[in-house]
Amino acid sequence: MNLNVVIAQRPDKTIYRDGDKCIKVFSEGYAKADILNEAMNQARVEELGLHIPKILAVTMVEGKWAIVSEFIEGKTLAQLMKEEPEKKDEYLDFFVELQLHVQEQTCTQLKRLQDKMSMKIDQAALDATTRYDLHTRLEGMPKHKKVCHGDFNPSNIIITADGTPYIIDWSHATQGNASADAARTYLLFCLEGDTETAEKYLNLFCKKSDTAKQYVQKWMPIVAASQSVKAIAEERSFLLRWVDVVDYQ
After folding, report:
1. Residue 232 three-state SS
2. Which residues, including other chains, have CB under 8 Å from residue 140's CB and lie 6 or more apart?
3. How far apart are CA 28 and CA 37, in angstroms?
């Protein structure tokens, strides 16, 4: 494998391009079970017929675990929004439609979102009373079986030359309540400091899915607590402020 072309670098992984292949190499300390689960998530979602890169192999590269998949040529939706600001609202509309299309799917082999959120709440740096309140709120939320991407943001959408959207990074995929996934996307926009787009996104999602805005907002503290577990210090501080918000008007 040729590891000369670096596409992206994260603290725990480096992503390379080798011709028509994308090679994600994980750090030595990355849990093998998490790597295999990510590959399994992607393989299971492949079967739904969505446009996503196909898994080609799970292997070892220089003593480290790696996932090899198709390389998708194109620009991310985030790039297009930045390059063509006059079309940002149009792209955002397209983004929401794509998310709703994903959430129309079901895959009962994926991990339950409810279970993942419950585990993350237990791991969050919160006092026992707050954790109890979050668990109570989570238990009271409707339990669905929709495919939830878990990290649905414009950077994870690649648009090819013919306009086909490919969705990448399925490591956080679960089955569960679509509004939790929307709450996660909203918080991602907020983390980037783009609160204007965050509000536009939430309004669009609620309108197109015929979902009450308050219903999505009820997920915010739960999702923020879950996301805070592996966040960097600055992001964790921001997310934990959302956990303190009990109700929204």
Report:
1. coil
2. none
3. 17
